[in-house]
Design a protein that fits this description.
Elements: E1 2-8, E2 11-17, E3 26-30, H1 37-44, E4 52-54, E5 56-57, E6 60-61, H2 69-73, E7 76-79, H3 91-101, H4 107-120, H5 136-148, E8 154-158, H6 166-181, E9 186-189, H7 193-199, E10 202-207, E11 210-215, H8 217-222, H9 227-238
Parallel strand pairs: 3-9, 3-10, 7-8, 8-9
Antiparallel strand pairs: 1-2, 1-4, 5-6, 10-11
Protein name: Amino acid ABC transporter ATP-binding protein
Family: Belongs to the ABC transporter superfamily.
Keywords: ATP-binding, Nucleotide-binding, Transport
Length: 242
């Protein structure tokens, strides 16, 4: 991202954001609610149109007016805090719909990939279930499988544990740890500070739409330089969340 600016009416949500994500790394976006984390992710996937600046994926400016937005989205996986699974479709059909309809993958190959991922994420016996028969943690893992089924270059995770009961958070975060070990490139917005500290290669602290501070997890959590970052993390520690 280069000088990305996004407004909603008179409200400036992202202010001249610069961000670079290296392949096979994890970038964590932290900050208070309303700081712009989710909007940044939505802009990265072209779900929101930016007002100024540019976004690049590999060597392509994906915000160029002539960019094929559908082709761009096929290279980026997104998992939201709401699972967004189709309730009338089985787990298997939820996962294979996009590969078959959008990517042109055969049903046989799409289902083989889905079964492989479900097995890997501990859901091997759930392919024929409907979403309402699954726990929240299981539904979120299915949403992650669905995003991975198309073999994305980049995975965006937006507060994926926010809707989960505390006892289910760990099982979803374990999946993200495994994806990091596999070298998946990820950008995640999270309120799980301990998790961000453990898995992120780069941490960006957002405040009022500005990337106020960025650095390694060790630097941001161990020696934050900006007073606003220090204050934010101090509140997190006092609340027992770090």
């Amino acid at each position: 991202m280069r000088s990305v600016r996004k407004t909603f009416g008179d409200s400036v949500v992202l202010r001249d954001v610069d961000l670079e994500v290296a392949p096979h790394t994890v970038t964590a976006l932290i900050g208070a609610s309303g700081s712009g984390k989710s909007t940044l992710l939505r802009c990265a996937n072209l779900l929101e149109e930016i007002d100024d600046g540019a976004i690049w994926l590999d060597d392509e400016e994906i915000t160029h007016p002539r960019a094929d937005q559908d082709a761009v989205r096929r290279r980026i996986g997104v998992v939201f805090q709401a699972y967004n699974l189709f309730p009338h479709m089985t787990v298997l059909d939820n996962i294979t719909l996009a590969p078959r309809r959008v990517h042109g993958v055969s049903r046989t190959d799409a289902e083989a990939r889905a079964h492989e991922l479900l097995e890997r994420l501990g859901l091997g016996g759930r392919a024929g279930e409907y979403p309402d028969r699954l726990s929240g943690g299981q539904q979120q893992r299915v949403a992650i499988v669905r995003a991975l089924a198309a073999r994305p270059r980049l995975l965006l995770l937006d507060e994926i544990t926010a809707a989960l009961d505390p006892e289910l958070v760990g099982e979803v975060l374990a999946v993200v740890r495994d994806l990091k070990a596999d070298g998946m490139t990820m950008v995640l917005a999270t309120h799980e500070m301990g998790f961000a500290r453990d898995v992120a290669d780069q941490v960006c602290f957002l405040d009022s739409g500005v990337v106020l501070e960025r650095g390694t997890a060790e630097q941001i959590f161990g020696d934050p330089r900006h007073e606003r970052t220090q204050r934010f993390l101090r509140r997190i520690v006092e609340a027992g969340r770090l």
